[in-house]
Amino acid sequence: MADDRKETLNLLAVGPLPPPLGGTTVLFERLVGRLREREGVSVEVIDTGRVRGRGLAGVTRFFRLIVDVVRQARGQDVVTLHVSTSGLHVIGPPVALAARLRSTALIVRKFGGTDFFEYPPLRRCLILWTLRRADLYLAETRDLVERARSAGLTNAAWYANSRPMPELPAEPVSELPDEPRRGCRRFVFLGQVHGGKGVRELVEAGERLPEGVTVDIYGPLGFDVQESELTGRERVTYRGPVDSDDVHGVLSKYDALVLPSYHHGEGYPGVILEAYAAGLPVVSTRWRAIPELVDDGVTGLLVEPRDSGALRGAMLSLVEDEELYARLCEGVRARRHEFSDEIWSQRFVDYCRGLKE
Fold first, then answer.
1. Calculated CA dihedral for residues 52, 290, 133, 30, nearest 10 degrees
2. How many CB atoms are closer than 10 A to CB 171?
3. Which domains does the chain have, with CATH numbers?
4. Which of 146, 159, 170, 308 satisfies CB 3.0 to 4.6 Å to 201 for a cystine?
5. All residues at 6 or more sequence positions from 114 whose CB lies less than 8 Å from its CB, including other chains
6. Residues 345, 82: contact at Cβ < 8 Å?
7. Residue 35's CB: how many other CB atoms inside 10 A?
8. What strands, in cross-sheet order, belong to the sheet with 105-111?
9. Rounded to 5°, angle at Cα 101 from 69 and 81
10. What is the pLDDT at residue 51?
11. Gap between the Cα atoms of 216 and 190, Å rounded
12. What Cα–Cα distance (Å) separates residue 211 from each residue in 21, 234, 287?
């Protein structure tokens, strides 16, 4: 989508690029890609990745990238910092100082659902110092925006996670050729396989589902759930990790996503947006900002965290009630474009142009 205005918008985008692959790196890379597709937008990128856990080499890289920010901010219309909550108190202050030194507008976009007001005083003060010097603070969830505004950060605005939303076929696709998918029999979990994502509750609920119903779990191990906890099950099968390029294809083979998360840093889980992109309704939890993303009874079903019985009940209702399942699928189709990365990248350009003008 081309921008109608001819005057070039010059942006310096500071954020993490892959590798490693993850929510923040994928979101930043996709936004940069979308911005570069637009006429009238010029983007320079400074990669903040590969700093943590690298000892002296990481410290050296950090100082070099700050020097790069100061140097490359010259002549830019807007400096944009894209960062997780855990790194904002470190990189935020020097980037804010660099933008002020160059008399350049600053946007800070924070990934994730972690509320920095819960941090210890020093970290919290450094983050607040940064955000108060930004022209615009973009938070991932509406709840975080409200909390920021109640603390006096009037520059806070909502900027949701997004994904490409390709057109869906008129009928859900079955694994069998020329046969539309009917009802819900195949559930999928995709993400980091650890307790905070509700994996153990999912295994317990899945094993109590009727014959013919399956639950497949995809994602990396190495956290607090052992592969032995997932093997030898009757209904639940661990399928291993998935490459990011294959996520859409994998999800498209299933009927519904299950994400019974109570992870402390949950914002807008990217896998829910990936499920919407594939046309799948979602069974998830009333946890943090998930109810902002999953409209209970419209695009999915929500249960209380850590309740395997309620989780089983929600999954069973999709299996037994075809009308409910069909209604949720229609709800996803109606709402999915609200989280299209084409729409949100245009909103980002609008934010930047508003500061330039």
1. 60
2. 10
3. 9-162+340-356 (3.40.50.2000), 186-338 (3.40.50.2000)
4. 308
5. 84, 85, 86, 264, 265, 267
6. no
7. 21
8. 41-47, 9-15, 78-84, 105-111, 136-139, 156-158
9. 40
10. 85
11. 8
12. 36, 9, 30
pLDDT digits over 134-154, tens only? 999 999 999 999 999 999 999
Instruction: Burial-class residue 135 by CB neighbours within 10 Å (0-12, 13-18, 19+).
Output: middle
Q: What are phi and psi of 283, to 5 degrees?
A: -105, 120
- The angle at the Cα of 54, spanning 50 to 55, to the nearest 5 degrees, equals 140
- Place 265 in a pLDDT band, splitting at 50, 70 and 90: confident
Give per-residue pLDDT as tens, 153-190. Answer: 999 999 999 999 999 987 655 444 444 456 899 999 99
The Cα 187–Cα 28 span in angstroms is 29
- Lookup result for tokens 């790069």: 68
Q: In this structure, what token pair is assigned to residue 35?
A: 């911005």
Structure tokens at 298: 């419209």
Q: What is the 3-state secondary structure (H, E, C) of the chain?
A: CCCCCCCCEEEEEEECCCCCCCHHHHHHHHHHHHHHHCCCEEEEEEECCCCCCCHHHHHHHHHHHHHHHHHHCCCCCEEEEEEEHHHHHHHHHHHHHHHHHCCCEEEEEEECCCCHHHCCHHHHHHHHHHHHCCCEEEECCHHHHHHHHHCCCCCEEECCCCECCCCCCCCCECCCCCCECCCCCEEEEECCCCHHHCHHHHHHHHCCCCCCCEEEEECCCCCCCCHHHCCCCCCEEEEECCCHHHHHHHHCCCCEEEECCCCCCCCCCHHHHHHHHCCCCEEEECCCCHHHHCCECCCEEEECCCCHHHHHHHHHHHHHCHHHHHHHHHHHHHHHHHHEHHHHHHHHHHHHHHHHC
Please count the other Cβ atoms lying within 10 Å of the Cβ belonging to residue 329.
Answer: 21
Distance CA 30, CA 7 (A): 23
Q: Is the dihedral of CA 86, 153, 28, 59 positive or negative?
A: negative
C-alpha to C-alpha distance for 254 and 278, rounded to whole angstroms: 9
Residue 117 β-bridge partners: none
Q: Which residue has tokens 């949100």?
A: 344
